[in-house]
Amino acid sequence: MVSEMKKVESHKSKPETAPETTPGSPPDAHVKAGSQKTPASGPGGAAEALEKKIAELEQANAELREQHLRLQADYANHEKRTLKRIADDVDRQKRTLLLALLPSLDNFPAALAHAEAAKDGGPDAVTGLVEGVRRVFQHLLDALAAQGVVRIDAVGQPFDPTVHEAMMQRCEPDQPDGVVLEEVQPGYRLEGRLLRPAKVIVNKHVTNQEPAEAHEGASAEPGESGDGD
Q1: Helix pair angle (123-146, 43-120), 10° resolution
Q2: Do 188 and 195 meet the contact criterion of CB atoms below 8 Å apart?
Q3: Nearest 5 degrees, angle CA 9-CA 12-CA 17?
Q4: Is-above-0.85 flag for pTM?
Q5: How far is 182 from 165, CA to CA, in rounded Å?
Q6: Domain residue spans in the chain?
Q7: Is the pLDDT reported for residue 198 higher than 90?
Q8: Class assignment of domain 148-207?
Q9: Whose CA is closest to 136, among 105, 96, 176?
Q10: Backbone torsion region of residue 203, taken as left when φ is above 0, otherwise alpha when ψ lies between -120 and 50, otherwise beta
Q11: What is the tens place of the pLDDT at every residue in 29-50?
């Protein structure tokens, strides 16, 4: 009995040894398959990451769409404001020009009154009429000049196709060739740019034509006319 109890105690006192492994086998080959953990990058984790990426892209797309709509609305408002500003500027320029021309219109009744008086009047009435018309004309030129409209010099100037339009040619030998002799319709510039060319008559010298060649036989020597003796 005592010997059996000693055997049991000696068996309990022996240390537990790790199971032997065969050469070439991995150290954890003895671990059961059920004790291995599933990696975090499995099929479930990939699907979750993909859904997250899709949500981020959808949010970015929504933000870009909202930004595009906002920019489109801003551009439409800017276009409306620009068109309105241009229309206001045009109306203001029209108003300024018309106000400058109204005094000339006011002077026409006086000119017409001088014309009526000139019918039965003498030289003084005619002189008054001419002076009144001249004042109206000068006032119109001044009003246009205030808007940047300047008359183009034509008569006596060399013909310039950039500002002159030749209506016809005329020969005056005492005037230089190619000079403007007469202005049919005045031309104007607007702030340095051509508004309307001046219609003019240009001087053109006619060159003398070469003398015609003598007819055959005209230069024949005397006695060679074919007559007899």
Answers
A1: 170
A2: yes
A3: 150
A4: no
A5: 12
A6: 148-207
A7: yes
A8: mainly beta
A9: 105
A10: beta
A11: 444 444 444 444 566 778 888 8
